[in-house]
Amino acid sequence: MKPGRKNLITDVAGLLVGHATDASARTGVSVMLLPGGWTAAADVRGGGPATREIEVLGLANLVDRAYAVVFSGGSVFGLAAADGVTVALSARDEGLRLGAEPHAIPIVVGACLHDLSNGGDKAWGTMPPYRSLGMEAVEMAGEMFDLGAVGAGCGAMAGTAKGGIGSASLDLGDGLVVGALAAVNPVGSVYGDTAGRFFAAPFEWGAEFGGRGSGTASLHDPLPLDSKLSRLALAKPGAATTLCAVAVSADLSGPECQRVAMMAQDGLARAIRPAHTPFDGDLVICAASGATELGPEGRAFQVARLGAAAADVLARAIARGVYAAEG
Questions:
Q1: Residue 125: is it exposed, middle or buried by C-beta count within 10 angstroms (0-12/13-18/19+)?
Q2: Is the Cβ–Cβ distance between 189 and 234 less than 8 Å?
């Protein structure tokens, strides 16, 4: 096992990622394109989520696939980014066809983080920029993309430190690849001590986020010093979240995608303390390309292996996002 060639979620073949950043407003949009529609499911554990089309992926519902996942700044205003992505994909004839109607209908899953109080110019009146940023992010999508303070991570904060976009991957062999993408904006801290050593350090490959080792100074305190919860004035309901996507190359069903998403939530707990608070909107969306067949024998074992790998990869992606934003 080792990280994929790019050490990005786009090591899962076919998947593309694009960013659009509004530097003056200190906000932006990141989109993950799933050409042809990928089986997908979500697990939401934060206490203050802002989402779109999560329920449509529910296991009791008709549609079990998504054509894109959109992460945005802007809190509820950022949900409009998915409108722009929807229009851009439909114009490319990407989406469902339910009859003779002239428009393709792409299922676009969206989630937003809160960056409205980060000092950027938010005087947009009745024209927030997110719809146009969503369309721009689609045009920018490719296999290579930047990490750190870009796209949805432009105005993010990780506790009291700078947050951002992170990504990582792991090649399990036999055609099985797991990747993760995270927009890191938690109320909790990613640092184990004042030397800036990451809680996620035990999962690091090489020096992908600085090779600093893991700190232990904060392990006895449930609210680390770099957490916003260490100061009551900084703890604002709904003002933080970590938005995560994991992708796998396997032919997972909807329920199997949801199980992987649930297991991947452990990656948040490995990288952030505390996670899943009432102040966060933490969620994980899992998408499966279907490129590699697992087969019926030992399938549950393989799903468990993919979920375990997804948790480790997501922990690495979170730390990489903050490490890149530091620079």
A1: exposed
A2: no
Q: Which two tokens stand for residue 89?
A: 């994909």
Which bin fits 26, alpha (ψ -120 to 50), beta or left (φ > 0)?
A: left
| Number of domains making up the chain | 1
* CA distances, 282 to each of 23, 248, 267, 303 (Å): 25, 20, 11, 22
> Rounded CA gap, 244 and 201, in Å?
19
Residue 103 lies in domain: 9-326
| pLDDT the model gives residue 230 | 58
Residue 207: count other Cβ atoms within 10 Å of its Cβ. 9
Q: What CATH number should be reported for the domain holding residue 99? A: 3.60.70.12
- Interatomic CA distance for residues 11 and 143, integer angstroms: 8
152 falls within a domain: yes
Look up residue 327 and give its DSSP letter.
-
Provide the 8-state DSSP code for 198: B
Question: Helices 130-140 and 81-91, interaxial angle, to 10°?
Answer: 50
Map residue 245 onto helix, strand or coil. strand
Q: What is the DSSP letter of 191?
A: B
Residue 314 in tokens: 């997501």
Per the listing, tokens 């232990």 go with 216
Residue 4 lies in a domain: no
Task: Tell me the torsion sign for CA atoms 140, 142, 144, 147.
Answer: positive
Of 168, 122, 121, 167, the residue nearest 148 (C-alpha): 167
For the record, the structure tokens of 193 come out as 């001590």
Inter-residue contact 271 to 242 (CB < 8 Å): no
The answer to whether residue 107 is domain-embedded is yes
User: Roughly how many angstroms between the first and final C-alpha of the chain, as a whole number?
Assistant: 29
pLDDT band at 229 (very low <50, low <70, confident <90, very high): low
Q: What is the pLDDT of residues 20-45, one digit of tens each?
A: 999 999 999 999 999 999 999 999 99
Assess contact for 141 and 72: CB atoms under 8 A.
no
Look at residue 58 and tell me if it is in a domain.
yes
